[in-house]
C-alpha cells in the first residue's frame, strides 16, 4: 500500500507541476503571443544545458544511494551531505560556465539572465533525498502550494507581450522557493555529521556514469527546441514546447511509477531478493501498459482540435505535432520501467547509459534532415524514432534477465482496446462541434469503451485490481 500511496502522491505532484503551466499557458499563449512563448522556450532550452551539468546525474544516483542506506540513519546522513556537497560545487562550476557563455552570446541577454535563476534553484533541490526514503508527502504538499502561488502570480503580473522577462522570473522563482521549502525538514530527518568524516568525491565517478544518460535524455527534451529555433524559427520552438507540455502531462501519470519504484526496487536489491524484484517489474510493466495505451490513443484522437481549443488562434500547428508525439507516451512508459525501475537498481548503469546515448545519437542524426523537410513535425518524428531505439535496446539488454513473453503477455489486449477506442473517439472529434462539452463527452466515451473491452478480454490489470480490492476488504 505504501507504493500505491507514494505513486498517487507523485502522480499528484507531477500532474500539478505540469497542470499549472497548462492552466497558465492558455492565458500566456494569448498574452505573450507565439513570439513571446517561443522566446521563453528557446532561451529555456539553452539554460537547461547548464542545469544538466549542475545536476550531474544526482537525481537517479542520489535517490538510489539513499534507498540503499536509509535503514542506517548515520550512514544516510553522511551519504546525503557527501552528495549535496558535490552538487553544490557542480552548480558553482555551471554558473561560472554560464557567465563565460554570456560574454560571447549576445542574443536576448535579458531573457538569458532571467533564465539563470533556474540554475541557482537547482543547487537547493533535495527532492532526490525524500524520494530515496520514500517520503513523497513532504515534496508534494510543499511544492504544490508554491506551484499554486506561482499560478496566481502569473495571472496578476503578466499582462502583455512585453512581460516575457517577468514571466521567466516568476517561473524560476517558484522553482527556487519550492526547493527551499524542503530544507527545514532536513534537521528532523538527518543526524549531525562532522565534515572531517565526509568523502564526497567517492560519489563523483558513479554520478558521472549517470550523467551521460541524463545528457542523452536532454537531447530529446531540449535539443529539438534549440534546433527548431535555429533552423526554422523561435515560434516553432514554442509550438514544440506547447505540444510537449500536453504530452508530458499525460506521460506524468505513467512515469511517476519510475520515481516511486526506483527506491523500492533498490531496497529489495540491497537485500538480495531478485525474485521479488522481477515480480515487481512484471506487475509494473503490465500496469504502465494498461494506463499508457488508452492515454496515447486518447490524446491522439482529440489532438487536432484540442490545440486551438486550448491555446487559441495561431497555434494550429500544435495539433498535428501532438498527434505524432503522443506515440512516445507508450514508448517512454516501457523504457521507464526497463531502465529506471530495473537496470538502474540492479547496477546495470552501462546498459542504461548506452541505451539513452544510442537514442540521442539517433535523434541528432535524424533531426537535421527531418526538420529541414518537415519542420516541426520532423522534430516530432525524430523524437519518436529515438525513443523507439532506446526501448528496443533496453529490451535486448534485459532479455536474459527477464521473461520477455511474460512482460508483453497482456499488452495486445490493451493495444486492441485502445485502438478501438481511438477509432470511435477520433470519429466523434471530427464530427462533433469543437466545444469543451464535446471534448468531455469524447473522454467519457473513450474511458467506457476501453474499460469494457479490457474487462471483456480479461486483461491482467483487472485481476490485479480485484486482488487489491479483496485485500483492502479483508483489512
TrEMBL record:
The keyword Protease does not apply. The keyword Membrane applies. Pfam families: Polysacc_synt. GO terms for cellular component: membrane. Keywords: Membrane, Transmembrane, Transmembrane helix. Coiled coil: none annotated. InterPro entries: Polysacc_synth (IPR002797), PolySynth_Transporter (IPR052556). It is found in: Membrane. The chain crosses the membrane at residues 7-26, 46-63, 84-105, 164-183, 287-307, 327-344, 351-374, 380-402, 414-430, 436-457. CDD domains: MATE_Wzx_like (cd13128). It is a multi-pass membrane protein. This is Polysaccharide Transporter, PST family. It comes from Lactobacillus gasseri (strain ATCC 33323 / DSM 20243 / BCRC 14619 / CIP 102991 / JCM 1131 / KCTC 3163 / NCIMB 11718 / NCTC 13722 / AM63).
